[in-house]
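cache lookup: miss for this entity combination. No prior model stored, computing from scratch. Input as submitted by user K.M.:
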Amino acid sequence: MDYMTLIQLLDSTVRLATPLLLACLAGLFSERAGIFDIGLEGKMLAAAFFSAAVASLSGSVWIGLAAGIGASMALSIVHGVASITFRGNQLISGVAINFLAAGITVLIAQSWFRQGGRTPSLMGGGRFEAITLPGAEAIADVPIIGPLYSELISGHSILVYMAFAAVPLTWWLLYRTRFGLRLRAVGENPAAVDTAGVSVVGLRYAAVAICGVLCGIAGAYLSTALQAGFVKDMSAGRGFIALAALIFAKWRPWYALYSTLLFGLFGALETRPDVIESLIGIKMQGQLLGALPYIMTVIILAGFGGKAIPPRAGGEPYVKER
Amino acid sequence: MDVMPKWAEVILVPLISLLLAAILSALVILGIGEDPVAAVKLMVTGALGSTYGWGYTLYYATNFIFTGLAVSIAFHARLFNIGGEGQAMLGGLGVAIACLYIPWPHWSMALVGAAVMAGLFGAVWAAIPAWLQAKRGSHIVITTIMFNFIAAALLNYVLVNLMRPKGSMDPATARFPEAVNLPTLHDILAPFGIAFSKSAPANVSFLVAIAACFVLWVLIWRTRLGYEIRAYGHSESAAKYAGISPFKIIMITMIISGALAGMMAINNVMGEAERLVLNSTEGAGFIGIAVALMGRSHPLGVFISAILFGFLYQGGAELALWTTIPRELIVVIQALVILFTGALDNMVRMPLERIFLALRKRNAKAAEGSK
Amino acid sequence: MSADKILGQPEAAVPFAEPAIELKGISKAFGPVQANKDISIRVMPGTIHGIIGENGAGKSTLMSILYGFYKADKGEIFISGKKTDIPDSQAAIAAGIGMVFQHFKLVENFTVLENIILGAEDGWKLKPSLAKARRSLVELAEDYGLNVDPDALIQDIGVGMQQRVEILKALYRQADILILDEPTGVLTPAEADQLFLILGRLRSEGKTIILITHKLREIMETTDTVSVMRRGEMTATVKTSETSPAELAELMVGRKVLLRVDKEPSAPGDVILDVKGLRVIDDKGVERLRGIDLQVRAGEILGIAGVAGNGQSELLEVLGGYEDGTGEVTVNGQNLDLTGKYSDGKSRRARGIAHVPEDRQREGLIMDFHAWENTAFGYHDDPGYRSGVLMNNNAIREDTTEKMARFDVRPPDPKLEAKNFSGGNQQKIVLAREIERNPDLLLIGQPTRGVDIGAIEFIHQQIVALRDQGKAILLVSVELEEILALSDRIAVMFDGRVMGERTPADTNEKELGLLMAGITDTDVPHSVAEIEANLAHVTGDASKEV
Amino acid sequence: MTLMTKFMGAAAAVALSAGAALAEPALIFDLGGKFDKSFNEAAFGGAQRWAEETGGTFREIELQSEAQREQALRRFAEAGANPIVMTGFAFGDILNQVAPDYPETDFAIIDMVVDQPNVRSVVFNEHEGSYLVGMMAAMASESNTVGFIGGMDIPLIRKFACGYAQGVKAVNADATVIANMTGTTPSAWNDPVKGSELTKAQISQGADVVYAAAGGTGVGVLQTAADEGILSVGVDSNQNHLHPGKVLTSMMKRVDNAVYQAMTDGPGMEKGFNVMGIANGGVGYAMDENNAELVSTDMLTAVDAAAAKIADGSLAVHDYMSDDSCPALSF
């Protein structure tokens, strides 16, 4: 494998890891506050559709992004109402949200565009274009560093840079601010937060809302940056992979970056069977390759990648004890 | 003391939840610019207006009974089996192997053989996540989701590379021999002089599904194993105290659950398609979740809600056939049913409890007053 | 040490001062349960006011209302004479109220400092808040003798320390009124004394303290005034100096209570249970039992005293068959498997070991099961409960009806779910199930926790009766009074070891208390500082040592 | 159409299904969906042309699942639709079962041979059309590396790839052909994200012309090729207009003609086995104003010469499906 192949592979990794990273951080906020969320998938899907649909109708990708975030937030609120206000089962609520998104996106797409559940292809301002960072072209020919900068680091859409910037931001918010302290506390022991005079419900809704925003960006990235339009089921299980990455990351922001990059790499390798063949010397079954992220997830979940301790109050609705 | 009488808990709460889901569904239909009343009419005529419609409704219901029971038994042990889909896929593989490679002399023997193979394959596919949960503490919800994806890849591999007849472009097996074709309801009812649509796929598996409901009811409420499963589901710490091994319960429950999900394949693969195609399960594994939630994990409730979902499915197919409303409408309705009967349960229960409490207080006062 | 010595004299009451707290006509219902009925109370500033009552009398609910944790259905609250609305804890804190809950409200994997500032930060940035809290922590530690390591994680410090953190949390929020709910339940007697020392100092600084407890002794030794609650109602408020334990007990229960258990001297027979070198290592790799040796004979009650968390639970669990261990245990001279297939609860029952677990709601019963289903719990394999491959539900129900009658379970309805019985009746269901099997050995943990006094007498009588039938009984309780009243011999556990054995006749609470703190006769400390040093050592998490 | 008339129509259809015949043709799209900009859309175009020209109406359904195939076939047959046209090989097995039950109904199936008396089977010589666009790709390529991205890995798509590779090698024997398949399930027809990543991967391996035979997935391929500034080749429909000046040409597979023909012939149409190749205009390449500047006269001359030779039989393009092997490409 030569250097340019490596760069290409990593470039692809970055693209494929971005939605995972955003969804993973979304899940991190929610689960750190004690709300399990297997509805990441659905929120991404809804956001992917609404951002593409609105971008296509309005011609502006930014309005599309706002719509995608709005759709994802709406589902977040549903999850919040079910699991915070009415103390329902968070897993069941998440399952429902995934179905809801899978159905409603196609239903509305068909109703609005009559194109069999997809949106029209986005043109021009309806898409997030790749950004060329300053100096990328100038140093493109410098060996090693040139391709690294101009191919790998430069040339992604703004959402990719936002996703990567979200990692330190999340870390800072979580560990350096009052909000972060309270958020972490509410996921560990909501009673402590409650008796300290802070609203558990308010904090959890805030966390769920942030989760909605990040999922919204992730979905918008899929349909308006990675692709030029929505097709049905285009989230394709990424929400679940993000969830697995979150566990692998032990609910920490920087680890989330590493683990989603790892899953992104699996995805990138899937498009390069030739590279795998040259690396391991045998031709790998296409199906095995496709199933690899899921198999890896199971292995990681089985604790072969180290035991992960989830937030102690995770998944449990908060009921004041009697 | 319980706040609500039992009938309210078992019947009123799900019924109101269902009603809310129905109202919201109607709003969705309105929202996409269609007429909910007309849509419902079309669905009812299409699904229940003829033996043809019933044939499809019951065919779908059979699938959902199996997957609904699978989810239910796992719920009793507080295990959330989202892997019904993958287990049913593997069950299909078991059926295909049984039907293609064993020369059965009669369909009845083939049915038994195929059901055993389907159950076995489904059970194996559920046993791995179960073992991971019991021994490694991996969350069964996520592992079963992952196993759905892995099952799809595995089935794909087997169909494309191993079982596809030479020259065929379909990722599907060859057609099963005539001898293993299951009698449809048409065949079963004809001797009794009842005319039932010939082209509908409902078949003898429906009776197997009913039998499965009964067997599961006995298992859960009349056997020691069922007692242990329920005890474990209610309190793991108490189960440990009583000497009920969590490992054993998780494994056995998931094996039964997986076997039930797998056995769905005798209906859709052996009874209907008569060959194994990719995606033969069509999401029935997921619908099992809604069916189990609505049926309160009771076999009778599962039966009733499976029929309801069968109706929704067949009605939805008719809608897609005769109007421009996509079939995804059914997915939305299903989501709303899960949301309201499962996650937003308390939204209905809390006000109801308040009402019953107020009623009781008033009665108590009235009783005092009369003294 | 007498109460006066620890606490000093109360400040001379200022005449005509406004009460620090006044509650008027507070009522609160949870669903069909009326937890508080028209309660009024006045507490003067600079005093310690006790609230005593049985479990479920409504003490905690009342205080939770005062702390804004629940909202009262009816009634008014006055703080320092001003009518104050307390819709949430934030309002309570603003009104100068702090509360130390029975179950600490601390975030386990946060540091002490983080726990203290949680909810009382000075701005959205964490750093300045932490720095400020660190400074005031030093001051508070000096003022009140509340030393803690600000950077220690909560999960690494002992319960006594955790309680200090809770008190510091309240003081950091400048609380003038401090509510403590059952503060001594998890403390050794020495630690409790230490706590009361601190409370005395707080009182002398002018703070008002409300102490909720069900222990008569604490009330008598520490409070200035006391209120008694029974079934959601306030039955009396009296000056502590003008009442007696017997009177308070009667007010609590509503009738005269025997505070002692009448029993004949024991006549021990053969050794039934023989434990040698028993060790247990928990999931986290911490050694919970570090080589236990003990024997229980037929016709004898061996009481295990100790502060909760020193290995008693693990001892019961390993003997009851749901925790693995190593060592040698024989019952009736025959070896007991401590690991593997035959070390589960079922095998133990087959060997004649019955077990009333410490936590009946989590272990002894399935709260959603009917009483009859619970009667079969653990014995559901019994041939009498079978009919072919199925369970013989009718037989179980008949058996249950009979047992409920004999143990006076009320209401005697086998079809009622366990959660719908009171604590005492739940315990009777468990006892009936375990005792009626005629076991050779009864393991019984916290037999009267959360049980009303009437049922306590009944349960104690049953235990003594079983002993008199010649059965061996291993009793674990954190209530020293109960241990002293029931046991024929007492073993004190500390940090996974047996510190010593005594008979009730030749020991007293003080000596047992020292043993419970890990102090043996040879090195009795002489000063508070020494006790503290010892405590700091012993309450540190055992996990630090591995 | 207003809501009510739509539903009345629907209700009427249900009522009618009991007895009277509804002599409307019906079109059933395969799983990729009507608007895949490719295969199914071509079929739709043909049906629409028929409707516009004759003023007739037709029924249509987009399948969402495998089990719907039989249901849709039977429902349309019972409702009296005639003829019933379906696109895609996946109907083959089921049509074989269903057709005998409705001897009065005529069926037409595209891309598959079904041997029943009331079925017309239409298959295309995709390898011939692919050969031609392969030649054009090789001539347009500057890097001497061209790509092929298939949808689902099935013999039919290998047939496309093999014809393409032969065309490339015919122009430049040293050229490299990189071939990738999107997947092995029907969802491979509808995965533009992966199509896009595959395109980028091929570009990094030097490809500067990419041919997508991947249904809806191709949309992603063409998009990415346009974004990255290389040329692409469309398939089935004329896709030149999707990215004007960026799509070199499209391999035309005249599914539209086949559908149009079947509907025009109507009930009682000629049954049997139709092969559509270069000779009878069934396959070819697309030229219009969108790609006029990309295709040189040299290219046209060479390709047209080859087309003529194929038509008269003097040039035989190897068909992968004839022996499951390809001389120009290994899979």
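stored under new cache key. Chain C touches chain A at residues 30, 61, 67-70, 88-93, 99, 101, 103, 105-110, 114-115, 117-121, 123-127, 129, 169 (CB under 8 Å).
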